[in-house]
Amino acid sequence: MIRRCTEADIPALYEIINDAAQAYKGVIPADRWHEPYMPLEELRREIADGVEFWGEEADDELAGVMGIQHRGEVDLIRHAYVRTRARRQGVGARLLAHLMQATRKPLLIGTWADARWAVRFYEKNGFRLLSREETARVLRRYWNIPERQVETSVVLASPAWT
Length: 162
What we know:
This protein is α+β, with helices and mostly antiparallel strands. It contains six helices and seven strands; from the N terminus they run E-H-H-E-E-E-H-E-H-E-H-H-E. The chain has one domain: Aminopeptidase (3-Layer(aba) Sandwich).
């Protein structure tokens, strides 16, 4: 069952994000990795900044989470993570499909350039990789991230993006 996450889910969000983010360790630039990957204070700031988390529940616990953030004429998919033990069961694809159906706006997804599995996942689900120039432009316009992250990230766009 996919449902919107609540304040009561914050401990589970924190756990899922930091469990799943272990896949980035040794893959993303070392200067961008830290533990925990997303501290609790940062998670709370993201929620306060408008990231709405949705989760898929299985066996009375969240198996994966994905956020959506409204940014005017576009929506951003933010912080998409599936518990390590729940991977390769379609959780991410179902969450993404749910959020794609929830908006009529173009969707943009930012991820680490070296996280090739994430890029392939989004491409498999209908998103296209933007050029380096367009990636830098949209990251600076719609995200609030350090310049180093702009340099090491890619953006994928839904078919509605022109």
